[in-house]
């Protein structure tokens, strides 16, 4: 019996783009290097799309998404589709659309790229549209139409995907030179006719449905923004000849946007029912459901890697059946955010591998659920039994339940997360021990990760270099880094982090409870893919992780060397985290393991320990109501990590940004003795903001912008420092770069740090 259009089907909003062996990355980078022709690049891309659709169809997905594929970024693709090419890229795009596209993404010698920022609270980065009052939109449906045609020609039923007009405008920023107060949403009336044209083009090419992604609707929106959404979908819905419209929301609950979408004249709405978005279920009932509409129910977590609880999802779906005209089963969001296929993970314990679901496994889960809905649970009895067994094995595993870790976490008290001495007392003790000059100089931790260092790591992995040989290379680098810093006259030294492949992975590899994958790549941006570690179980530290390298470095110098750790929030943010306990519990376990490392560093002679938390702000929940709870456990985890030390041990932290906004209070609640942060580009604005907020402790606003190869002059660094002094008294001001130096070369690093030290001397002399 062929399924009628109102029986539940499985569908996905989008798929990973890279191919099983990151073929796309190789083809694109080959094209940039001139080794691959444009035709070959397009052929590789088309082949990957074809394979993706075929896999979906074979798994039982009856309508495949198209247009979600991208050579770089789907928001940039939307910018092209609506013709919002920035003026500075116009000529390049006109001369050659493909090269112009990559120029917008990456910049050229002469022209800056679009700014890149995080896609909601994921680790995917998109290119920020630049709009202004003079922006003229023009529909360019070429990509959307040709990818749709490709799928149709291959015999698939297909649903083109576009970023929706609200989300597109809400993610945009004022173009350079435009009044920074300009609100891109004011362009909605100009943009809607362009969307109308895109929809008409897709309809003409054979689209029955079009999916418009509106994740911006799961953030707190003003009444004006919700009105704009209502107006947009009323207008698009009223178009005479258009495909049916599915408005997809994901990453959180739709909240006040839900009644707007329920009333809108569109045929379908996608809602997320996982994690914090589970509240959509009650909200949907409260608005009276979506009678006559197609509900795409995101019941399988699209951005984490654990198997679904199929029975629980079936129960949710059963409730939803009464709340919409048609219910389809989907992952909560595009599968872009998870790796491809767990069956490639041959190094994982097979039992543990069964707890994991990547894109392919998630696709199987949704088709199983859809079949269960259509045919009854007896039809999926075998799948349910296997799922129940895998969930039970995970719940009962020694990996997920280490009694010692649990007992310790349970015994943790508020006292453990508070340093016993008041800040003033600590500051005095640290001052007496460290004997630093006013305006002490330091760096953030990493020194250049040179080709030699990366080659040594690759050689170690490939067996061309043994452990001892590898360690000697790293030791040589530490000697060089220490010698340079002494010569340059820096006050608090670092060992340079040469041995760290990545600031999270390095620790994940050494902590029990973390797993590593071989092929678990996910797109971070463009052709950059990361393999996040999997925080799978209870976390413990079998042995010290950084103490040997610290000791080695400290033995080389009489100056203090900073112990250097990644903080608990960042350890969670850049990993796949377990979903079987609250994040706060996981963070506490990681914090306790790190706390032991801090204590061991102190015992090994560290007078200064830095615990980096660059991810603190990016993990902020999308809905304001969820933020205080998050910030409370995040700050507590940091304090638990750092509060086990003596008064005269100085705790530093580092953040890679200056816009604190609503996390200002949380920053204070970390209680770090010293915080370093980015400030060079914003002329020390953050120093003033901290001062205005009454921030009581020491601050190191960066005076060297490490995001650029440019070497700041002594005069420039000194000017920034004086600006810092206008906000923070000399007794509490540090001199440091904005961030770690791992992406810089040695020549510019030396010159820049020499200038930084010189600037500190100059300004000290003026005090
Ligand atoms: N200590 C790290 C480094 O210097 C901090 C990196 C970061 O802030 N992202 O590289
Ligand atoms: Zn940083």
TrEMBL record:
Functional note: Catalyzes the transfer of a methyl group from 5-methyltetrahydrofolate to homocysteine resulting in methionine formation.
Residues involved in 5-methyltetrahydropteroyltri-L-glutamate binding: 22-25, 118, 574, 618
Pfam families associated with the record: Meth_synt_1, Meth_synt_2
Binding site for L-homocysteine: 444-446, 497, 612
Protein name, as recorded: 5-methyltetrahydropteroyltriglutamate--homocysteine methyltransferase
Record-listed E.C. numbers: 2.1.1.14
Residues the entry annotates as binding Zn(2+): 654, 656, 678, 739
Keywords: Amino-acid biosynthesis, Metal-binding, Methionine biosynthesis, Methyltransferase, Repeat, Transferase, Zinc
GO biological process, one term: methylation
Domain of life: Bacteria
Pathway annotation: Amino-acid biosynthesis; L-methionine biosynthesis via de novo pathway; L-methionine from L-homocysteine (MetE route): step 1/1
Annotated catalytic residues: 707 (proton donor)
GO molecular function: 5-methyltetrahydropteroyltriglutamate-homocysteine S-methyltransferase activity
Enzymatic reactions: 5-methyltetrahydropteroyltri-L-glutamate + L-homocysteine = tetrahydropteroyltri-L-glutamate + L-methionine
């Amino acid at each position: 019996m062929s399924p009628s259009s109102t029986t539940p089907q499985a569908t996905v909003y989008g798929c990973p783009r890279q191919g099983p062996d990151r073929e796309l990355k190789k083809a694109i980078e080959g094209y940039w290097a001139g080794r691959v022709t444009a035709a070959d690049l397009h052929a590789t891309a088309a082949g990957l799309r074809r394979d993706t659709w075929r896999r979906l169809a074979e798994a039982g997905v009856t309508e495949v998404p198209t247009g979600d594929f991208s050579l770089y970024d789907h928001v940039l693709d939307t910018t092209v589709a609506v013709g919002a090419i920035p003026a500075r890229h116009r000529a390049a795009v006109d001369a050659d659309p493909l090269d112009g596209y990559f120029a917008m993404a990456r910049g050229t010698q002469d022209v800056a790229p679009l700014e890149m920022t995080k896609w909601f609270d994921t680790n995917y980065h998109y290119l920020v549209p630049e709009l202004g009052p003079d922006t003229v939109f023009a529909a360019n449906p070429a990509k959307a139409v040709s990818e749709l045609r490709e799928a149709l020609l291959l015999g698939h039923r297909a649903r083109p995907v576009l970023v929706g007009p609200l989300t597109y405008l809400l993610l945009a920023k004022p173009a350079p030179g435009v009044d920074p107060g300009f609100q891109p949403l004011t362009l909605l009336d100009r943009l809607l006719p362009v969307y109308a044209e895109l929809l008409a083009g897709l309809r003409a090419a054979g689209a029955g449905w079009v999916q418009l992604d509106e994740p911006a609707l799961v953030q707190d929106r003003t009444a004006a923004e919700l009105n704009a959404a209502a107006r947009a979908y009323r207008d698009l819905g009223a178009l005479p000849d258009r495909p049916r419209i599915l408005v997809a929301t994901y990453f959180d609950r739709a909240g006040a946007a839900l009644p707007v979408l329920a009333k809108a004249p569109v045929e379908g709405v996608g809602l997320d029912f996982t994690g914090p978005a589970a509240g959509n279920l009650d909200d949907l009932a409260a608005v009276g459901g979506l009678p006559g509409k197609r509900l795409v129910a995101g019941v399988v977590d699209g951005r984490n890697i654990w198997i679904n609880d199929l029975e629980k999802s079936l129960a949710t779906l059963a409730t939803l059946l009464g709340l919409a005209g048609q219910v389809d089963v989907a992952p909560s969001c595009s599968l872009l955010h998870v790796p491809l296929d767990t069956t490639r993970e041959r190094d994982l314990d097979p039992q543990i591998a069964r707890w994991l679901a990547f894109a392919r496994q998630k696709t199987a889960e949704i088709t199983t659920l859809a079949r269960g809905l259509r045919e009854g649970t007896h039809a999926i009895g075998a799948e349910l039994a296997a799922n129940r067994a895998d969930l039970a094995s995970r719940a009962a595993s020694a990996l997920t339940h280490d009694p010692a870790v649990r007992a310790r976490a349970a015994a943790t008290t508020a006292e453990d997360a508070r340093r016993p001495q008041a800040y003033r007392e600590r500051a005095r003790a640290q001052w007496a021990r460290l004997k630093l000059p006013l305006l002490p100089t330091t760096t953030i931790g990493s020194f250049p990760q040179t080709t030699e260092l990366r080659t040594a790591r690759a050689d170690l992995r490939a067996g061309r270099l043994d452990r001892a040989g590898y360690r000697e290379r790293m030791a040589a680098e530490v000697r060089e880094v220490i010698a340079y810093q002494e010569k340059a006259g820096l006050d608090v030294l670092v060992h340079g982090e040469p041995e760290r492949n990545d600031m999270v992975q390095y620790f994940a590899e050494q902590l029990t409870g973390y797993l590593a994958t071989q092929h678990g790549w996910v797109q971070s941006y463009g052709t950059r893919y990361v393999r996040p570690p999997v925080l799978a179980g209870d976390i413990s530290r079998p042995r010290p992780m950084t103490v040997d390298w610290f000791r080695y470095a400290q033995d080389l110098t009489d100056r203090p060397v900073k112990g250097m750790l990644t903080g608990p929030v960042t350890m969670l943010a850049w990993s796949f985290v377990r979903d079987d306990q609250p994040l706060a519990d996981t963070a506490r376990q990681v914090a306790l393991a790190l706390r032991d490392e801090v204590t061991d560093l102190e015992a090994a002679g560290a007078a200064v320990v830095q615990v980096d938390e660059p991810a603190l702000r990016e993990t902020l929940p999308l809905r304001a109501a969820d933020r205080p709870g998050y910030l409370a456990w995040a700050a507590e985890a940091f304090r638990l990590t750092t509060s086990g030390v003596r008064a005269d041990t100085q705790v530093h932290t580092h953040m890679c940004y200056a816009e604190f906004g609503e996390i200002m209070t949380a920053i204070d609640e970390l209680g770090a003795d010293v915080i370093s942060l980015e400030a060079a580009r914003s002329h020390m604005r953050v120093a003033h903001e901290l001062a205005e907020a009454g921030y009581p402790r020491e601050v190191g606003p960066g005076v060297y912008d490490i995001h650029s190869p440019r070497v700041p002059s002594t005069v420039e660094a000194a000017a920034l420092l004086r600006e810092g002094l206008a906000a923070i008294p000399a007794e509490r001001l540090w001199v440091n770069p904005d961030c770690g130096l791992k992406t810089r070369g040695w020549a510019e690093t030396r010159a820049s740090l020499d200038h930084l030290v010189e600037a500190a001397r100059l300004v000290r002399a003026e005090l």
